[in-house]
Amino acid sequence: MFEAGIQLKEEYGAENVFDFSLGNPNVPPPDIFQRVLRETAEDDRPGVHGYMPNAGLSETRSAIARYLSDVHEMTITVDHILTTCGAGGALNVVFKTLLDPGDEVIIPTPFFVEYRFYIDNHGGTPVLVTTNDDFSLDMAAIEKAVTEKTKIVLINSPNNPTGAVYDARQIDALSRLLKEKSAALGRDIYLVSDEPYRDIVYDGMSVPSVLSRFSNSIVATSYSKNLSIPGERIGYIVLSPELSDISAVTAGMVLCNRILGFVNAPALMQRVVTRLQGVSVDSAIYQKKRDLLYAGLTDIGYDVEKPGGAFYLFPRTPIDDDVAFVQALQKYNILAVPGSGFGGPGHIRICYCVDDNTITGAMNGFEKAFHEFR
């Protein structure tokens, strides 16, 4: 899709191509980020660009721990934090540490497509379970999927590609289920929550804490979306202070951060985010884009759940073949991604982290493609 976009823009001009294919934030980083970045880059003290402990800079981890202690209303310390090369790096470190060959990872669908590869990297087996029609968690499906090989349940809230936010009721129910299954199997099951969109939520919603609800929980996240810096590859892992065998798990993650080739998270960005805890882009900007796109598509007749967070819409396609519908959209210079790649066939993912003109300019093509099949 990325290459198709380049080709179409060369042929028709960038202003005539409506590219919704990539979740690349178009809202600039907060002004304070630019100031802190410049000040940090001018720091010429000896050793600031040198090696560090593989878990990351102590001052960075301490700042994150203080902030998260308030967010999750529990005591989180520097020993519970590991800085990483983004959320993707964080998840690979988690899987490398926890998974033995053949261990199963349960993933509610639709899901971020790269999860399959991350799990495969470390000998695990992804087990896909359906969600409800509104993309909320289907507890019966998750319960049925748990076996003696289950090691991890992986959730992503707000979700990519649907924008669904799992509320406290769902997280409480999931926590109860995993406690019961862990006890029955005599085996630790870990809840891993991928949360790079935690601060991008709408309509007064909030993302409930998994750390305070389930002892064997781990959060992987990044600053890619809340600071609009995905190319800087900076994120972190936070372990529940009540995690089973936490010393061994922490030591394993520190080792895996190194041997996977990350070594440590980027030093410059660690020093920058140390001073930016709690800072985020204005999610109201994305909410306006969501509302603009949602209103336009529903007026045409598309069936789409209104997302509570992130910056994606996941409408149902007017035909079952979502790949064919994506190809039809390309006739109108609209680039979207088939939902089947995310485990959601019969849908398309539309990223609305784009200029408002891209959204309004695409509506004519969305309407023509829709009626072409209706």
What order do the helices and strands come in, and which of them pair?
Layout: H1 2-12, E1 18-19, H2 31-41, H3 58-72, E2 81-84, H4 86-98, E3 104-108, H5 115-121, E4 125-129, H6 139-145, E5 150-156, H7 168-185, E6 190-194, E7 217-222, E8 235-239, H8 246-259, H9 267-273, H10 283-300, E9 312-313, H11 322-330, E10 334-335, E11 337-338, E12 348-351, H12 356-373
Parallel strand pairs: 1-10, 3-4, 3-5, 5-6, 6-7
Antiparallel strand pairs: 2-8, 7-8, 9-12, 11-12
What can you see in these coordinates?
The chain is an alpha/beta fold and 374 residues long. The protein folds into two domains: 2-27 and 282-373, Aspartate Aminotransferase, domain 1, CATH 3.90.1150; 48-273, Type I PLP-dependent aspartate aminotransferase-like (Major domain) (Aspartate Aminotransferase, domain 2). The protein is 40% helix and 13% strand. It has a seven-stranded mixed beta sheet, sandwiched between helices. The protein has a three-stranded antiparallel beta sheet with strand order 9-12-11, covered by helices on one side. 45% of the residues are buried.
